[in-house]
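Minimal example, chain plus magnesium ion.
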Amino acid sequence: MIVSIGGTKGGTGKTTLAINLAIMRSLAGRDVLLIDADEQGSSAKFTSLRNSECPGGAGYACIRLIEAEVADQMPELRDKYDDVVIDAGGRDTDAHKYALGVADIAILPFRPQSFDVWELAKASKIVHLIRPANRNLKAYAILNQADAVGKDNEEAADFASDIKNVRYYPHPIVSRKAFGRASGNGLSIVELSGRFRDQKAASEMYPLYELAFGEHFEQLKMAGNE
Ligand SMILES: Nc1ncnc2c1ncn2[C@@H]1O[C@H](COP(=O)(O)OP(=O)(O)OP(=O)(O)O)[C@@H](O)[C@H]1O
Ligand SMILES: [Mg+2]
């Protein structure tokens, strides 16, 4: 599966969700490539940290590709890896368009804030533009950094549900400190242990994993991993 995580808005959680999906998929025993197509290089920096923190290494491969390189190299890469996750970055970049051109699934995270919701409409136009070149593309908007309580989520979800070309995926991921803590330590949300483990946060990632890969998340049992 080729999964693009992108959108035109900054700070919505694209990198956070991309690295978590890549790690979870690798924990499920798949050979995963994470492509950092964002010029900021956050996914690549995270992977360096993870490589230095984890005795067994990151568990997935990560490369940085610039714009058209994503399209040019995809035929070879899709044969080499079981799954590819692309951190397609933000703003109205060509990187995002190239990622949408090759992806099976596009995930567009947004926060329950007006600016993010308005930007979704822009992302919808880009999906519309790309679709003739990639007829199989399925695009989903997912609420990230959602409020734990209150009406803002519902209002944002209502707006997102009305946007054309993009389907609203009704499994919000709430804003939880554990995400930042995990990333800062080179870990995914499902790898936090002891008092830092946040089962609610982990369980909110499962539906996104299912959307991305079409399977329930099941961690491969390995020595030292039980
Ligand atoms: N569900 C969440 N709960 C709490 N914090 C989150 C969550 N998702 C992301 N964050 C935090 O929000 C910040 C922005 O996340 P991230 O860098 O993943 O966004 P981005 O969309 O990749 O940003 P950019 O547009 O700069 O690439 C980070 O500090 C991250 O830890
Ligand atoms: Mg990012």
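The first strand starts at residue 2 and ends at 6. The chain has one domain: 2-213.
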